[in-house]
Amino acid sequence: MPRKANFGRSTKETRVSVTLDLDGTGDATVRTGVGFFDHLFTSLAHHALFDLTVITEGDLEVDDHHTVEDTALCVGEALGAALGERTGIHRFGDARVPMDEAIGSATVDVGGRPYSVIDLELATPAIGNLTAQNIPHALESFARSAGITMHVTATGRNDHHVAEAAFKALARALRAAVSPDERRSGVPSTKGAPSQVAS
User: What global pTM score does this model have?
Assistant: First the structure.
């Protein structure tokens, strides 16, 4: 089955449209009006081998917070939808990626448990027109709406390198976690798929 999703959301603060194909080639078009944020999600798609299109119109006259948060939430929603029942996949992935003096590390579980631990060594208030504190917030938002557990850390002396190493490590970890496991056809959990009974 194709592992693709389209997701859109419109509020008084933002309008976001996302298309995602987990079995792509890394082709990405990301336009949010926040240049470095576009760069980070383009890098994530490229190294995860996801085809990703993101178009966001946000209230950048206020600041970049709503645009960044809502974009991350919508990409997460699309990822969760594309995973479907989350069957026949490896579920877990981890990666370490260097970028010059910086090193990023990511460990993920895409099995449906939303949680994040983000620790990025960022020293400056902003990178381009992206507020630095919105980078970990974007990752937290993405994890929550995607239904994945993420532990992402990155250290270094250059904030551009630190953030990019983190996103590249996350990309490689996601690429491993969502990849099909030909030895498994069901849900990769000892619990199995939950059954629900309404009363």
Answer: 0.92
